[in-house]
Structures are given as structure tokens and as C-alpha cells.
Specification:
alpha+beta
Length: about 180
């Protein structure tokens, strides 16, 4: 398992990211650590030299460590009959480029055995608040028109005719 994980960090992921953008985020359950303070026991077994090298080479910043460099917090707590209780910070959120980390925290969630990792980021100069253009509708129906019984009947009949016509046309073309 550890060999496959190390190969992913040293071969697969770098190849997948060859054409990546200048800015981005990488996140997930990495199932390993890059610093001994990120686990309460068996740190050597959980340590990933390949992830540490990959993050350093590609200039990834650990969102949580950027804001909380010395905190000892974990994202996965577990109990093993042989080793007892243990914890590790294996759920990570990395940023690169101009992505700015504003807040990062781990919180308990009811649907997982991992903590939720909530990160707030700013994308200065990368996104615009007015991505989709605003438009005015061509017409607006007044509330009294929509409540009118004759209007409702005509609308209902028109929709049935339209749907039936489209279905008939579809079967003629695709028969």
C-alpha cells in the first residue's frame, strides 16, 4: 500500500499535473503525513517522502499549516486493538500560485470517520464577480394574469399540444 501511494506521488500525480494552470488547489484524503507532528504514533510508517518532495517541488502550500504552523490537530481519529487510540492529519488542502488562504479549520461531521476540512480562499485577479451577464426578462406576467382561469386553461392546452407535437416529430425522425 505504501509503495503504491509513494509511486502515485512521485510518478502518477506529477504526470497528471504537467499541463496544470499557474494557480490551483489540490485536496483530499492523502492517507499519509509530511511532518511528525501530524500523527500521534507510527509517524515513520505514515510519513510520505514523495508527497513532501512533490509539495516542495510544485510549491504547494498546506492551507492549514499556512495559518497554524505549530498547532497539533488531527483529521482522523481511530482505535486499533493492538496499538490503542491514535490520530493523524491525513486530510489536506494544498494551494499554489496566487490562491490566498483566508481561513482553515477541521470540524467534526456526523457522516464520516474523518473531520471535515473547511478552507476559505481568495482568488485575487483570477475571477471576476460578474462572470455571467445580467439581463432583463423579455416580459413579466402580472400576478393577476397567472391566477386567471382562462389563461391557465390556454397555457395547459398549449403545453400539451407542444409536448405532443415534439414527441410526434421525434418519432417521425427517429423511426
Amino acid at each position: 500500500m505504501k509503495t503504491r501511494r509513494e509511486n502515485s506521488f512521485s510518478e502518477t500525480i506529477p504526470n497528471m499535473l504537467m499541463n496544470s494552470q499557474e494557480n490551483g488547489i489540490i485536496l483530499g484524503d492523502f492517507n499519509c503525513i509530511t511532518d511528525i507532528k501530524d500523527a500521534t504514533r507510527n509517524q515513520d510508517e505514515k510519513m510520505s517522502a514523495s508527497l513532501k518532495r512533490l509539495a516542495s517541488t510544485l510549491k504547494w502550500s498546506d492551507a492549514y499549516r499556512t495559518l497554524h504552523p505549530n498547532d497539533q490537530i488531527f483529521s482522523h481519529y481511530y482505535s486499533n486493538p493492538t496499538y490503542g487510540n491514535s490520530a493523524s492529519r491525513i486530510d489536506r488542502f494544498y494551494t499554489y500560485g496566487e490562491v490566498e488562504v483566508v481561513a482553515a479549520q477541521y470540524v467534526g461531521v456526523a457522516f464520516s470517520n474523518h473531520m471535515g476540512h473547511i478552507v476559505s480562499i481568495n482568488l485575487p485577479g483570477l475571477c471576476h464577480s460578474n462572470i455571467s451577464p445580467r439581463f432583463s426578462p423579455l416580459f413579466k406576467a402580472k400576478p393577476e394574469v397567472v391566477k386567471d382561469k382562462l389563461f391557465k386553461a390556454r397555457l395547459k392546452g398549449g403545453l400539451r399540444l407542444s409536448v405532443k407535437t415534439n414527441i410526434d416529430e421525434y418519432y417521425q425522425v427517429h423511426a
